[in-house]
Write a structure and sequence with these properties.
By secondary structure, the chain is an all-alpha fold. It has one domain (3-191). The protein contains 11 helices and no strands.
Length: 202
Amino acid sequence: MDWLPQLVVAIVAFLAGSLPTGYLVARAYGVDIRQVGSGNIGATNVLRSVNRWAGRGVFVVDMLKGFLPAFLAPLLLPQLDGSITQIIACLCAILGHNYTPWLGFRGGKGVATAAGGFLAICWPALLIVAVVWFMVFFLSHYVSLASIIAVAALPPLVFGFSGNWNFTAFATLVAVVTILRHKSNIQRLLAGTEHKFEKKPS
């Protein structure tokens, strides 16, 4: 039964994604990341509220939470439809990160974890998305704006490089959900009250 190994992929990917990296790293520094800055457990808030090395470490691990399930699942289960397996793995890793059961189902916004997943699914598209992110961030110094614009560019890039409608539909879903999870950031951007990124000394 194909659904049973896919269910295992979904559970393992969700558990991998649910590791609250930002919370654990910040706690190691004596900081409850949920009580400082934006209150988000993602890499940006850790970088701002703890230090840049902690933030960078969180970003790398959060990316790996998306990359490893999406990369390894089709290799370990070659009998399954590879694209569907990767989508399930990536989706469940993102859900685990965004709604981690270890913190009352409140997690991050999934940008780094989604990036890791799409690095496995369609790495050329992800590389261009990364360039878009850095360009917008360099010009604006808004992490949220860079993330919103970059993720909006993901679906057409995925289709252009892969020609796979399953991947494109999934990229569209990820883009829509990610943008919706930035609703408060969008409101602050429109109001002119969104905080620009400022480096915190290490």
